[in-house]
Amino acid sequence: MSKFTMPDQESKSSFVKENFEKIASKYDLFNDLNSGFLHKVWKNELVRYLDKQDCRIILDLCCGTGDIAYRISKLPNLEKLYAVDFAPSMLQVATNRLKDSSKSESMVGDAMNLNQFTNESLDAVTIGFGLRNVTDLRACLKEIYRVLKPGGVYLNLDVGKVRNPIIRFFADFYFFRIVPIMGYLIWGGKNSMFDYLPVSSISYPGQDELQKILEESGFVDVKYKNFVFGNAVLHISYKPKS
Length: 242
Prior knowledge:
The protein is α/β, with parallel strands linked by helices. The protein has one domain (9-238): Rossmann fold (3-Layer(aba) Sandwich), CATH 3.40.50. Helices cover 45% and strands 21% of the residues. It has nine helices and seven strands, in the order H-H-H-E-H-E-H-E-E-H-E-H-H-H-E-E. Helix 2 (27-34) packs antiparallel against helix 7 and helix 7 (165-187) packs antiparallel against helix 8. The longest helix is centred in the last third of the chain and has 23 residues, at 165-187. The model has no long low-confidence stretch (mean pLDDT 95).
């Protein structure tokens, strides 16, 4: 297990923002290599769910470099896509990626205070590998719930908990030992963000716990789909229609 110490709640936001700013140009390469390019499969699955729901006005929150937002921008029935992140350097990568999409708008924003969006104005909200980075998970979910239209869908893709103890042993060894080293090699030196990313998964809720939190936050019909034995997980949830 990494010796990295997580920042406290007061400093977490500034730590994450500052360090994501630093690694923005290398982040996509890091994701490709540490997941063996599987993150693309998982993101495609998320976007397929959106397509099935015929969502037209969509917010990709904590959008990072816009990898998911770019996929959403290709949906045939899309009317408007908002790509929001609090790290300007990451958002700049996303903006460049979306430059040919006239239906897309990128903006700096706070996942726990979406004051640029009115109540019940969005058909869908997505987050890919970002929920565990927010300072207050429940406050973030409260804002997502507020801006969704009745019947709107929230899709959350992030790390999960592997239940099988044998598989978990090897998964943890890879995630906590190999992944940071991979990040250092890509970066060209030690960078605490590559330690933070796996360690942040320890306190992040597992599949069933996050399902319960979503239900407690008012979402209904909550379900999830595991990828690679639960190393990653997609949660699907809805705001009640009435």
